[in-house]
Write a structure and sequence with these properties.
mainly alpha
Length: 177
């Protein structure tokens, strides 16, 4: 790679062109990561990080919340996870059909919209949980369902777009990031 991010084989050598010396590590580092500093790539990094963070947040909060609010044990929470797994499979099938007629970036925004909606919904439900009584259980499960519907969109599609944006010779380096 040249400093511009282009491959060295693709750049025509002209008499005024300088090549960095082997000892110049700073310019080597700039050249090595030049293609990964694009706005689209950095946005995909942020989207992927936020999406995985939200998945782990749901997994880590659901069990203690269900235990303290509803006195659910591991078996009841496992039923929620089983239902979430079935819902993810169903949502992934719908997402596959939607990807044929809707642009990938719009699908990511749809998924992030579902995640934001689920957090707003769950925050409201949990804040008013004491006054909801038995209806609180249903509303928490609905909120988890909204979250689960939104998860596959930013996760699967952002990783797919990432491999489309990165040049093929750099995919091995790109996957390590």
């Amino acid at each position: 790679l040249e400093k511009s991010g282009a491959h060295a084989d693709d750049v025509q050598k002209t008499p005024g062109t300088t090549v960095s010396s082997p000892g110049d590590t700073n310019s080597r580092l700039d050249v090595r990561f030049a293609g990964f500093k694009q706005y689209s790539i950095l946005t995909l990094y942020a989207t992927t990080f936020a999406s995985y963070y939200s998945v782990m947040a749901l997994e880590s909060v659901l069990s203690p919340l269900a235990n303290s609010a509803f006195k659910w044990g591991a078996v009841e929470v496992s039923y929620i996870y089983i239902a979430a797994s079935v819902l993810i499979i169903f949502t992934s099938g719908i997402m596959h059909l939607m990807s044929r007629c809707i642009e990938d970036r719009k699908l990511i925004v749809i998924g992030l919209g579902f995640l934001v909606l689920s957090y707003a919904f769950l925050t409201t439900v949990i804040y008013t949980l004491d006054s909801l009584g038995e209806m609180g259980k249903v509303l928490v499960v609905v909120g988890v369902g909204i979250h689960v519907i939104g998860m596959p969109f930013p996760l699967a599609i952002s990783e797919s777009l990432y491999t489309k944006f990165v040049p093929a010779p750099l995919l091995d380096q790109a996957q390590t990031i």
